Amino acid sequence: QATPEQELGRLPLGSRPAKRREGGVESLRAIPWIFAWTQTRLMLPAWLGWEAALSKALERGEGEVLAQMREQWPFFRTRIDMLEMVLAKADADIARLYDERLVTAELQHLGAHLRDLLSQACNVVLGLTGQTQLLAHSPETLEFISLRNAYLDPLHLLQAELLSRSRNREASLDSPLELALLVSVAGIAAGLRNTG
Questions:
Q1: How far, in Å, CA of 32 to CA of 7, rounded?
Q2: How much is the pLDDT for 8?
Q3: Cα 77 from Cα 139, distance rounded (Å)
């Protein structure tokens, strides 16, 4: 409910349908599902699981091992750097906006739990990198993200409203509502500079 995953399947995006012809959740294609979570700024598929794995390693006292891995293994260092960049683009307040606007009351606790996990993921990466702010080692990247957020935040507000309106009435693909939704999807993807 919190992502535009349903709507992505109706919009003329990509070369393949968002879902295979038959089946339930297992019939979803990965790219539209990941893209949908990126649109809400929760960035869930990029970090979910990593926060738990890294937390467990730190709880077991393996912080030095992780630091060595980050220093000596280019793959691990790159993965942590990418994780840090994605977490810097994530925004729990924007994700909460989608939940409040689109998710039924009985399911909103799930979004709150995921936002808590996002916060844990940020804290674990900060602990691992020894920084007090994500991307502190790359002020240029941090500035680029901050500048783009000034344009992205209103797009998210607009998209959440468009999704709500679209779900509350039938709209044809060529309706102004659906066209505005398509523009919001493209704008957010361009502003984030990645799709998932």
A1: 10
A2: 78
A3: 18
Residues 6+ apart with CB under 8 A from 49: none
Site of tokens 């294609």: 29
Q: Within 10 A of 90 (CB to CB), how many other CB atoms are there?
A: 24
**Residue 49 token pair:** 């699981």
Tell me what the mean pLDDT of segment 131-141 comes to: 96
Question: Rounded distance, CA 84 to CA 98, Å?
Answer: 23
Q: 19 phi and psi, to 5 degrees?
A: -140, 145
35 contacts: CB under 8 Å, gap ≥ 6: 8, 189, 195, 196
- Please say whether the beta carbons of 173 and 185 come within 8 A: no
Prediction pTM value: 0.85
Give the C-alpha separation, 38 to 142, whole Å.
18
> Are the C-beta atoms of residues 167 and 107 closer than 8 Å to each other?
no
Q: For residue 169, is it left (φ>0), alpha (ψ between -120 and 50) or beta? A: beta
CB 32 within 8 A of CB 43: no
Q: Are 146 and 191 in contact (CB under 8 A)?
A: no
Q: Cα separation of 126 and 113, whole Å? A: 20
Name the residue ranges covered by the structural domains of the chain.
5-192
Residue 156 has pLDDT above 90, yes or no: yes
The pLDDT assigned to 175 comes to: 83
Asked whether the beta carbons of 59 and 97 are under 8 A apart, the reply is no
